[in-house]
């Protein structure tokens, strides 16, 4: 059984700060991992078809894939309202996941607005990424589905006519104006007793109050406040509350090229995101989230510096083995579908600089100091001093040969620079400031000699290459060179000219013998496009920066969400969704345009 493939931007995010799901315009939840972001999905139609699990509520007779009339989040929340206008009347479906007490709940409340509308619900549970059909039976007047370690309870309030059909649970009911029917799906380990049912109507009110209270903390009052607020809500929705870890995205294997093989699992936490994320949280008033993210970072980075990874699980797990799921055809037939991420074993020397930069930013922004944080930084600096000259896989996790990536070297400079700044500000803490000044100067000279193409007036992707890399747009932001340095201006112009297209920016060139060792192409990388906004603004081209920023705002979907990449020719979002890095880029660019940049 298949259904029309919805565009990536047709989805909206719901979540409970421990996991999340994606709801399509057609009223179908096509992706849901329970009980955590990185758990196996019980709805995986997003990466396969309806037989791999989904849950659709729509007016009876609505065709597969037929979209609702309109939808929007309620106020500053992750509570989604979808309206259906039919010849018989109008109805809305409210989708949300309340912050859990014990078990995760997915709640869908159907409310009549006008007239009298009959609706149909099809719940097709498939555990283990759409691979396992559970046994469903009646119990206590409700339905319970069980398979191995997984169990899920399904009920409605008030009860409606429900039956089994083709390994799915179907319901049909009618609502008049003002009438409501609530459906609740609750997951729990199959060996444990059923969790106490939660009142869906009370949960809706509490969830709305929780989101309003959280959003009210936002200090940002500059231009584009709606876009900034929605991006911050999305970052909160991608946060695993027990640990403070922020996943890179809610999904795995959404392709960077339709039909291609660039399909990765992003349901983990990347150290590379740390400084920019921390800066966005601190600048907008979310100190609790900033503290929690720093605490996650310190736990993840603890241990032997030689073992520092580029990413970790949401609780700091180190082992993230990568496997393929052959029973899923992939989004738009983009295979393979992968879970786990083999890039966890790569050497990416830039992460040392990013961790040290993050901790420097936290200290300089006034977060209370953690006594052990400086000792961790000293250990990381000692490792980097001995290893910064090595080639690595770089920021973009290339699966080709290791190289001397310019961005990696720049971040080694950042590590030494932040150590120097820290001791200059607080001379009482231990450390050899002269030694780090010498390392900083050595790295700087090395990058300028080997990573700069004087003939073309631009920094390159790696030593000895003619290729460009959008990560070099960060050179003025991190303070490696001032924005008015001709080498910076030349790099910005070269990246825009050679990696730009329709105003947006790709990470690097994929034509010809690709540096990443992979076939195919990819779209414009949205975070890099926001970096170009920042670089244009910093180099005195404010009008162009604002125009590009507003172009990027237009790439968001109807509920304000961004994926990892964008195809400007097809006008479609690409890659995992929603992508934290894209939303962090949006927030930081808005801060830059408002004159409130804090990312150093």
Walk me through this protein's architecture.
The chain is an alpha+beta fold. Helix content is 30%, strand content 22%. It has 13 helices and 28 strands. The protein has a 15-stranded antiparallel sheet that branches. Strands 26-27-28 form a 3-stranded antiparallel sheet. α3 packs antiparallel against α13 and α5 (287-301) packs antiparallel against α6 (350-364). The longest helix is centred in the last third of the chain and has 20 residues, at 406-425. The protein is elongated, with a radius of gyration of 25 Å. The termini are far apart. The mean pLDDT is 93.
Could you write a compact summary of the structure shown?
The protein has 600 residues and is of the alpha+beta class.
């Amino acid at each position: 059984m298949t259904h029309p493939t919805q565009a990536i931007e047709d989805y909206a995010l719901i979540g409970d700060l421990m996991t999340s799901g994606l709801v399509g315009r057609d009223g179908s939840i096509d992706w849901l991992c329970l009980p955590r972001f990185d758990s196996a999905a019980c709805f995986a139609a997003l990466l396969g078809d309806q037989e791999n699990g989904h849950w659709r509520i729509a007016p009876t007779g609505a065709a597969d894939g037929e979209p609702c009339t309109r939808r929007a989040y309620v106020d500053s929340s992750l509570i989604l309202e979808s309206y259906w206008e039919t010849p018989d009347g109008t109805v809305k479906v409210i989708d949300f996941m309340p912050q859990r007490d014990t078990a995760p709940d997915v709640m869908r409340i159907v409310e009549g607005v006008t007239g009298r509308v009959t609706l149909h619900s099809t719940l097709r549970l498939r555990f283990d990424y759409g691979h396992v059909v559970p046994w469903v039976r009646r119990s206590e007047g409700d339905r319970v589905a069980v398979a191995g370690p997984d169990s899920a309870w399904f009920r409605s309030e008030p009860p409606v006519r429900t039956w089994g059909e083709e390994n799915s649970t179907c319901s049909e009911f009618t609502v008049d104006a003002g009438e409501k029917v609530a459906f609740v799906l609750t997951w729990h380990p199959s060996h444990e007793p059923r969790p106490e049912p939660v009142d869906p109507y009370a949960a809706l009110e509490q969830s709305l109050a929780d989101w309003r209270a959280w959003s009210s903390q936002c200090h940002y009052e500059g231009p584009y406040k709606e876009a900034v607020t929605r991006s911050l809500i999305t970052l909160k929705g991608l946060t695993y509350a027990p640990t403070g870890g922020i996943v890179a995205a809610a999904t795995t294997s959404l392709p960077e090229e339709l039909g291609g093989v660039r399909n990765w699992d992003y349901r983990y936490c990347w150290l590379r995101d740390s400084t920019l994320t921390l800066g966005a949280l601190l600048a907008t008033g979310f100190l609790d989230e900033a503290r929690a993210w720093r605490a996650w970072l310190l736990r993840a980075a603890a241990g032997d510096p030689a073992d520092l990874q580029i990413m970790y699980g949401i609780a700091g797990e180190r082992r993230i083995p990568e496997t393929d799921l052959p029973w899923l055809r992939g989004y738009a037939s983009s295979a393979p579908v992968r879970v786990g991420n083999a890039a966890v074993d790569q050497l990416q020397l830039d992460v040392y600089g990013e961790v040290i930069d993050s901790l420097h930013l936290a200290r300089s922004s006034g977060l209370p100091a953690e006594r052990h944080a400086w000792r961790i930084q000293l250990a990381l600096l000692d490792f980097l001093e001995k290893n910064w000259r090595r080639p690595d896989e770089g920021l973009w996790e290339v699966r080709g040969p290791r190289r001397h990536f310019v961005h990696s070297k720049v971040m080694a400079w950042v590590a030494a620079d932040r150590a120097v700044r820290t001791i200059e500000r607080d001379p009482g803490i231990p450390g050899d400031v002269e030694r780090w000044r010498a390392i900083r100067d050595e790295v700087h000279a090395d990058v300028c000699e080997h990573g700069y193409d004087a003939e073309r007036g631009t920094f390159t992707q790696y030593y000895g290459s003619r290729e460009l890399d959008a990560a070099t747009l960060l050179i003025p932001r991190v303070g490696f060179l001032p924005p008015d340095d001709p080498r910076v201006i030349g790099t910005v112009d070269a990246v825009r000219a050679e990696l730009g297209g329709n105003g947006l920016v790709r990470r690097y060139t994929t034509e010809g013998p690709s540096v990443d060792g992979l076939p195919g192409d990819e779209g414009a990388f949205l975070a890099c496009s926001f970096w170009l906004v920042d670089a244009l603004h910093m180099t005195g081209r404010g009008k162009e920066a604002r125009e590009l920023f507003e172009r990027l705002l237009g790439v968001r979907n109807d509920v304000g969400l961004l994926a990892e990449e964008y195809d400007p020719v097809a006008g479609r979002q690409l890659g995992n969704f929603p992508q934290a890095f894209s939303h962090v880029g949006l927030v930081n660019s808005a801060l830059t345009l408002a004159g409130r940049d804090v990312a150093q």
